[in-house]
Specification:
255 residues, 8 helices, 10 strands, two-stranded antiparallel ribbon, alpha+beta
Length: 255
Amino acid sequence: MEVLRTARLRLRWFGGEDAPFVRGLLNEPAWIANIYDAQVRTDEQAAAWIRERLEARYWLLGYGFWAVERLEDGETVGLAGVIKRDGLDHPDIGYGFPARFWGHGYAREAASGTFDYCRQVLGLRDLLGTTSPENHASGRVLLAIGMGDDGVRQTEAHEGPSHVYSWHDPAPRSDAEDIAALRLRWRAALRGDARPALMACVTPETVERVMASRTDLSPAALDHLARRWLPLAEDPALRAVRTPLGWRLDIPADR
């Protein structure tokens, strides 16, 4: 499922067919040094990692880390996106690319596209980026896309100190404006313009119901759910609820 495009790149959902690429990426020396060692050594382990760490988040959050493809030839060149980590107050932009694709500006382009998507499609008003203190190249990318430097500090999300970068929307907005923007995002997700962000529009309780005993995490399954909810696109009776992740729509249990 395509999420967004930039001048040279397409960001899409990962799937099981990406296991060989993911296995290679997770075993890159820079990934292990700057992020962590996932202990993924086989394609089977990579496929499980994709399902548990990537596909599940597309459903649980409505966003996550996406595959980065080069438009000119369709080759997968990296990973980029945004996740909500335990121990961080706001969603966190991240990316990773095999060394053979360094030096082409792909990280900056993918991170910039993600930054714009977070604000324009997901409606996020606060964003973070974290790197290891020694990873100055990633820090330069985060500064280049418009994030501020908050310095090095210990976070609850990481074992050691992290260099933290942040962005906060300076424009004040009322609850009524936030809810109106949420309903616009809801309609865009249901009608296909922003389908990958569908689950970012609904309450955690709705997500929990949807995910109960769910085994199919495919794009086709999300399309099916959107068709089921499509009659609710203009329903003014849908209740907006303030949650730790922001305003969300509470979908009736019988839908």
